[in-house]
Design a protein that fits this description.
The structure holds 2 protein chains of 2 kinds. By secondary structure, chain A is an all-alpha fold. Chain A has helices spanning 2-12, 17-59, 62-67, 83-114, 117-131, 135-153, 162-186, 190-198, 203-214, 216-232, 235-240, 258-267, 275-309. The longest helix of chain A is centred in the first third of the chain and has 43 residues, at 17-59. Chain B has a single domain (52-288), classed as MetI-like (MetI-like fold, Orthogonal Bundle), CATH 1.10.3720.10. Classes of the chains: A mainly alpha, B mainly alpha. At the A-B interface, helix 1, helix 2, helix 4, helix 5 and helix 6 of A face helix 2, helix 4, helix 5, helix 6 and helix 7 of B.
């Protein structure tokens, strides 16, 4: 019983009480400091991105940056319109959502409504493993496996294209959708299901008509979180989608996302302090704001869901 | 009578219901088969390149002479630095938030901030690391700069999982300890931490396995892809890491390098899966031991 002996020593050495009080205060401040690190991180991100971006916006107007339709900071003549990168990011996020949402939702419904405990115990750890696979591995899969298949199906496809990225990023965000959606589906009260069965509904009616609508806001939040991941996804997209910033919605063309652009500049020898170097901070700031918005909305929805059923 | 009329009105209701079940089951099979496909593909490509020589050779311009020794050692150092920094800070922050901070606006602010940090793309942390560690602190592209950047990436996950384990300790334990006159720290050190430790360890291992697979932040701070030495000074020497090496090989047009990349992935996945297995074992062993 360690707590007893601790108390005993406390009583026995009441002369050392002041020492203990000081010790507690020091510990309190050390632990507080640990928590403050997270605040400092956020401030650090914002400051680093803002300072360099502001320098960037001295040379390039915000208007040109946000509405320009050509992105070529590394080639002459330079153009600094982020729309092509934005378009590439959007294409990958939307495409991966199209791949992942139906499969993910179907799997979540199966695991929560149909699967026996045994099947759930087998499938869930496998999905956890899938969630733990690094994104560079998905990039490899895109290059070696998906790209040749797409090339053989569509002769017009470029070797690296948006569709490659959509498929593997879709695989990547599957576990996010499945585990979150399954959680909210399972938290729908049993009484709702039983009431529907009592009215003569089939399992399909109960699932599609009662359980999924009841969990809808939580499911939406899982979609948003997954899309936020797809937007921030880097290595797989860099390997799969090519490096051609382009204003297109054709998934068979080579594109470039915001994240892939940052990697491209980081890999080269762009000297610090130049305009080209600062572009990655401006792009990073845009990416940060975008993912933050998606995350904040998703968190807000999820916190409301928790209030609803707890 | 009534019932049969009902089913007459919807003659295919049962059939449709079964079809839906099959469809959902099919989705599940599809999700799991992604994992099977991935493992099968990687193994069939990379198995032949996997050898002792591959593990202990330097990277090379020739695919068949390439090895991952420098990347393996680089990753090992990185994880060491990341663990050494992120575990004390992460667990400390979790203890502060769960045991010290009273429910207040300040705590809510920190909590929301951590949740949002967990959703920030890792490449953004890479840019932060580039601006903060590489340039401002002049750490260059060293192991320390890489490790600190990865620390920022995993810190929110470490904090959140440690908080969850602390929260799982029943409050009666705390009350009993305080009732016996223990101070706050005595309660934490002697009562809460021993019980919460397996859960915290599980979270730490999973976070570190995430750090091990991260390439984007390291690429952003400018980690080298072609390193033919192991870092001897953590503060100055350049380094490579497993995911960066795999990225570099996959990016090559030659087929030979893809095979080497697959072999590298096998090594990375073996390390990751054994870390995951360790976490699962920890979780199961200790969750059985403690009964309230």
């Amino acid at each position: 019983m360690p707590s007893l002996s601790a108390t005993e020593t406390l009583i026995a050495s009441s002369g050392r009480r002041s020492f203990r009080a000081v010790f507690e205060i020091i510990l309190h401040s050390v632990l507080l400091l640990c928590a403050v690190v997270s605040i400092i991180t956020t401030v650090g991100i914002v400051l680093v991105l803002l300072i360099e971006s502001l320098q960037f916006f001295r040379d390039v107007s915000v208007w040109e940056f946000l509405t320009g339709t050509k992105w070529s900071p590394l080639l002459k003549p330079q153009h600094f319109g982020i729309l092509p990168l934005f378009c590439g990011t959007f294409l990958v996020a939307a495409g991966s959502a199209v791949v992942a949402i139906p499969i993910g939702l179907g799997t979540a419904v199966f695991l929560s409504e149909y699967a026996s405990p045994l099947i759930r115990d087998i499938v869930k750890p496998l999905l956890e493993v899938l969630a733990g696979i690094p994104s560079v591995v998905y990039g490899y899969l895109a290059v070696v496996f998906v790209s040749p298949i797409i090339k053989s199906l569509f002769a017009s496809a470029e070797l690296f294209n948006a569709a490659n990225a959509c498929i593997v990023v879709g695989f990547m965000i599957l576990p996010t959708i499945i585990s979150l959606s399954e959680d909210v589906l399972r938290s729908v009260p049993r009484s709702l299901r039983e009431a529907a069965y009592a009215l003569g509904a089939t399992k399909l009616d109960v699932t599609v008509g009662v359980v999924v609508p009841a969990a809808m806001s939580g499911i939406m939040a899982s979609f948003l979180l997954a899309i936020a991941r797809a937007v921030g996804e880097t290595m797989a997209v860099t390997l799969a989608a090519g490096a051609t910033p382009k204003l297109t919605l054709n998934p068979l063309e080579s594109i470039q996302t915001m994240t892939a652009y940052i990697v491209q500049v980081s890999q080269g020898d762009t000297p610090a302090g130049t305009l080209e170097y600062r572009t990655i901070f401006a792009v990073g700031l845009t990416l940060f704001i975008f993912t933050l918005l998606l995350n904040v909305i998703a968190q807000w929805i999820l916190s409301r869901v928790r209030e609803k059923y707890e | 009578m009534n019932l049969s009329q009902h089913s007459k009105g919807r003659p295919y209701a049962k059939f449709a219901s079964s079809c839906f079940a099959v469809l959902c089951g099919f989705c599940t099979v599809l999700s799991v088969s992604v994992l099977v496909l991935l493992l099968w593909n990687v193994c069939s490509y990379g198995w032949s390149s996997l050898s002792w020589d591959f593990l202990t050779s330097w990277p090379s311009r020739f695919a068949d002479k390439s090895g991952i020794w420098s990347a393996l050692i680089g990753s090992l150092y990185l994880i060491g630095v990341t663990a050494a920094v992120s575990v004390p800070i992460g667990v400390g922050a979790a203890i502060y938030l769960e045991e010290y901070a009273p429910p207040s606006r300040w705590r809510t602010l920190v909590q929301i901030n951590i949740a949002n940090l967990a959703g920030v793309p890792s490449i953004v942390y890479g840019i932060l690391g580039l601006g903060l560690f590489v340039r401002m602190m002049q750490l260059n592209r060293s192991v320390i700069a890489g490790g600190l950047t990865l620390t920022l990436v995993v810190l929110p996950i470490v904090i959140l999982s440690a908080q969850e384990s602390l929260r799982a300790v029943p409050s009666t334990i705390r009350q009993a300890s305080y009732a016996l006159g223990a101070t706050r720290w005595q309660t934490i050190w002697h009562q809460l931490l021993p019980v919460a430790l397996p859960g915290i360890m599980t979270g730490v291992i999973l976070s570190l396995s995430r750090a091990l697979g991260e390439a984007a932040p390291l690429v952003a701070i400018g980690a080298a892809t072609y390193v033919r030495f192991t870092p001897s000074n953590l503060f100055t020497d350049e380094f490579s890491a497993l995911p960066i090496q795999i990225f570099n090989w996959t990016d090559q047009p030659q087929k030979g390098f893809h095979e080497v990349a697959a072999a590298g992935i096998i090594v990375l996945l073996i390390v990751l899966i054994s870390m995951n297995a360790l976490a699962v074992i920890l979780r199961q062993r200790f969750s059985k031991k403690i009964r309230w």
